[in-house]
Write a structure and sequence with these properties.
7 strands; alpha/beta; globular; 48% helix
Length: 284
């Protein structure tokens, strides 16, 4: 395969924003390979990814560079993408990158032949997903608010035909994948879009390539998990930038949509009676 014949479609997002199902469903119509976080932070040379051994070196280089897309990192990344595509006898590959890291300008500089799409998700739903998974160690100070703000500002600065909103996948999956393929510059028939939608509606990617058959593809775990700390909800919904973003996106600005409902009167009475009974039992 010649270098200039490989078409790489990059899917960017923050973690827990729907990039996995987006990337794998995008690859489904043509059974394309997926370079799932090829730059790390994990070495994925074993099952189920089976990346070439050089991927371990790429992870080391990328980390050492401070997650910068240096010429050396870009060269090795391209080499690995070409190898993965060649192994699959494909001239296209999806590269999933759910991290802030390098900018759209750096992508254009190092990979001018590639196309990318940037995916955003309601940050409070994203936090709900992180808490539901127990991955709270990845949350940065102030409940990721400044981290998310940086990504959102980047997302807002891009042309609209290069951006996606995860919530729209539930509203109109056909339009979602049609826009995705357009952003990547890939011609797709209605049948191709149907195949992407069918994949999405059959599979729940809980974590990268891991499909979870016990979870329903029609409803994410975080949809039902109203587990975001109240201080996080207050921080986001009281921030002027976030309030404007939520309004623009049509995301709910009601705190009760993200936090557990208070116990009803019957539960409160039972709790109070239990507390009184416990106190009486402790008295001498």
């Amino acid at each position: 395969m010649k270098r200039d014949t490989l078409s790489v479609g990059w899917v960017f997002s923050l973690a827990r924003s729907g990039s996995s199902i987006t990337a794998y469903a995008a690859a489904a119509p043509w059974n394309l390979p997926v370079a799932d976080e090829i730059m790390g932070p994990w070495v994925r040379t074993q099952e189920p990814y089976n990346f070439p051994p050089e991927q371990a070196e790429l992870v080391r280089m990328f980390k050492q560079s401070g997650a910068a897309l240096t010429p050396e990192v870009a060269t090795l990344t391209r080499k690995l993408l070409e190898q993965l595509a060649a192994n699959a006898s494909s001239n296209r590959i999806v590269s999933k990158h759910p991290h802030l890291r390098f900018t759209p300008e750096e992508l254009a500089q190092r990979f001018p032949q590639d196309r990318g799409v940037w995916l955003i998700r309601n940050p409070l739903r994203r936090l709900a997903s992180i808490h539901a998974r127990g991955w709270t160690s990845i949350i940065r100070p102030n409940h990721d608010l400044e981290f998310f703000r940086e990504y959102a500002q980047r997302w807002l600065s891009l042309p609209s035909d290069r951006t996606l909103v995860f919530e729209s996948l539930r509203i109109d999956p056909h339009a979602y994948f049609a826009k995705l393929f357009g952003a990547l510059g890939w011609e797709a028939t209605l049948g191709d879009v149907d195949k992407a939608v069918a994949y999405q509606q059959r599979n729940y990617h809980g974590n990268s390539g891991g499909v979870e058959p016990h979870n329903s593809p029609t409803k994410t775990v975080s949809d039902a998990a109203k587990n975001v700390p109240e201080e996080a909800v207050h921080a986001y919904l009281s921030d002027p930038f976030m309030r404007e973003l939520f309004k623009r996106m049509g995301w709910s600005r009601k705190p009760s949509d993200y936090t557990p409902a208070p116990p009803n009167i019957a539960v409160r009475i039972r709790t109070k009676l239990t507390q009184l009974s416990t106190r009486n039992q402790r008295k001498p």
